[in-house]
Design goal:
Shape: globular
Strand order of the largest sheet: 2-1-3-4-5
Protein name: Response regulator transcription factor
Radius of gyration: 18 Å
Helix content: 40-55%
Order of helices and strands: EHEHEHEHEHEEEEHEHHEE
Number of helices: 8
Strand content: 15-25%
Number of strands: 12
DNA-binding region: 130-227
Distance between the termini: 17 Å
Organism: Bradyrhizobium quebecense
Domain OmpR/PhoB-type: 130-227
GO molecular function, one term: phosphorelay response regulator activity
Length: 229
Amino acid sequence: MNATPIKVLVIDDEPPIRKLLRMGLSTQGYDILEASNGKIALEMLSEGPALIILDLGLPDIQGHDLLRMIRGRNESVPIVVLSSRGDEAGKVQALDLGADDYLTKPFGMDELLARLRAALRHQLQVQGERPVFRSGDLSVDLVRRIVKVADREIKLSPKEYDLLRVLVQHAGKVLTHRFLLKELWDELTDAQYLRVYVRQLRQKIEADPERPQFVLTETGIGYRLRAAD
């Protein structure tokens, strides 16, 4: 970790979850701030957390409302949402409101740490977007619009490239169907159009389109491009 510890604000009303996160993240060098409800969380934003872990089930402020309030005060801080297993609609809503990622309870500490690192990398990428994106064998030159897998140049249609560009700009982050449709088409709202282009893109950049390594499906929610190396 850096010499200056990264501050993580944990917003959860369950003491055992806060303890688990405090112990797991502290061992990795993170500096942990804790809030048991939304009111305390809003007060603790003045501490300048570099990342927020937000449980949607809070006692005083509805989780999505709190997410909206946090985004109103800080547009860029990465937010990873914790949600119950079956709350698919809640996850989609949180992502549309500006959350960077989500984890379903119960979760493993290794997976949480990986998601936190991806969210922090995504923030750095947005702040100083690199002209060439690399993840495994995939490289995308955003300036020259050249896409390669290994050393082989891939020819994409304009819409396929636009889809890949949006995924690259948010690599590591879950993008909802609604977000991608809005970015790529002005009027379309049918996710079937999106699935067609995702399938075409996978046919061109994946070694095995049926078991994709780059463009990953978040079932019922959207898609995520594997984070940069």
